[in-house]
Design the sequence.
């Protein structure tokens, strides 16, 4: 639903709500770029013993926490509902039960305060985390979004245009990290611990496969084969009693994931004559990915800027939802109160 805005206020305050997975988050952001408050309650400790997120547990805790988190965000921003200009919520992709908690809360707040409701694509919101850092973003840009649930390459020809170039065909990059870490006995979440352990190992110690998928899938990703190769190697060595040096295993696995992510992003930047490259999502916090991306861009495209958010804005958060909602607010692109969760929502939708 679109509504024309007669005149934009000087300071647009948007309340962002994020509950797509296992973080309950709310934030108030001014003009899509200035964070006035941000609160997040992570459920990592609750899900760690299961080796991954349990949807029913995630939904239940969102229900218990959402009102408190929203109240904290408003109080810290020194704002009441009457001071807001819109309520924004990620309505997909994600876990359907978790998404529904955020969507229902946002609809109730928007209705009670007679505020516009803005639906935000969670995947695209990760991209907008970079707009909260003060980076000198220019267009066209290519963005790599890599997280526990998603891996995608996006093109932004201009400020309000988003095109999906490619995405994962099976496991997301972060999902592969978590599954491999679980088999290695490293716990959950797997990304940070593999990143740390890999620093002690040799990234060329084990020759793991890289799936580039040929010309037809040049911007798509596949990590299921790599994940299976790691698991098979571990099982074989354990059965034969061979020694497993985990730092080499972690470093070699991480190098295989990062090489594919980096090379496809570099190719996309060249093909689309990008003015800058963005990283986003939880895997964007990986130190090896950041360093390799910076190095390869410097080799292939000297002077091409690379931007990525601080770690707190890489994982799921509410400021990115409010930032992504700001262009929609300016366009008067509002959702109806029958908004629903869309767990399989794709980029550009």
Sequence:
């Amino acid at each position: 639903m679109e509504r024309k805005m007669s005149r934009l206020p000087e300071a647009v305050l948007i309340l962002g709500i994020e509950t797509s997975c296992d973080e309950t988050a709310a934030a108030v952001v001014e003009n899509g770029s200035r964070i006035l408050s941000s609160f997040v309650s992570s459920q990592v400790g609750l899900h760690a013993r299961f080796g991954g997120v349990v949807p029913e547990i995630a939904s239940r805790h969102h229900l218990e926490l959402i009102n408190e988190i929203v109240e904290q965000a408003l109080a810290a921003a020194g704002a009441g509902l009457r001071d807001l200009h819109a309520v924004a919520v990620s309505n997909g992709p994600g876990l359907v039960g978790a998404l529904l908690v955020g969507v229902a809360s946002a609809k109730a707040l928007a209705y009670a305060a007679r505020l516009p409701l803005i639906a935000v694509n969670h995947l695209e919101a990760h991209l907008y985390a970079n707009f909260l850092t003060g980076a000198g973003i220019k267009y066209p840009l290519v963005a790599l979004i890599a997280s526990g649930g998603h891996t995608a390459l996006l093109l932004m020809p201009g400020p309000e245009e988003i095109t999906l170039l490619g995405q994962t065909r099976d496991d997301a990059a972060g999902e592969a990290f978590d599954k491999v870490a679980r088999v290695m006995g490293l716990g959950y979440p797997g990304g940070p611990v593999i990143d740390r352990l890999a620093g002690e190992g040799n990234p060329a110690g084990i020759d793991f496969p890289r799936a580039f998928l040929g010309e037809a899938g040049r911007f798509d990703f596949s990590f299921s084969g790599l994940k299976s190769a790691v698991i098979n190697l571990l099982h074989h060595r354990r059965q034969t009693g061979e020694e497993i040096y985990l730092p080499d295993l972690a470093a070699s696995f991480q190098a295989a994931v990062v090489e594919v992510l980096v090379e496809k992003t570099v190719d996309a930047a060249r093909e689309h004559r990008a003015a800058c490259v963005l990283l986003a999502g939880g895997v964007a916090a990986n130190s090896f990915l950041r360093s390799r991306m910076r190095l390869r861009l410097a080799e292939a495209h000297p002077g091409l800027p690379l931007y990525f958010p601080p770690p707190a804005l890489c994982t799921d958060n509410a400021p990115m939802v409010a930032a992504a909602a700001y262009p929609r607010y300016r366009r008067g692109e509002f959702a109806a109160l029958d908004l629903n969760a869309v767990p399989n929502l794709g980029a550009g939708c």
About this structure: Residues 246-271 form the longest helix (26 residues). The first strand starts at residue 13 and ends at 18. Strands lie at 13-18, 23-30, 34-42, 86-92, 117-121, 141-146, 151-156, 163-167, 276-280, 306-307.
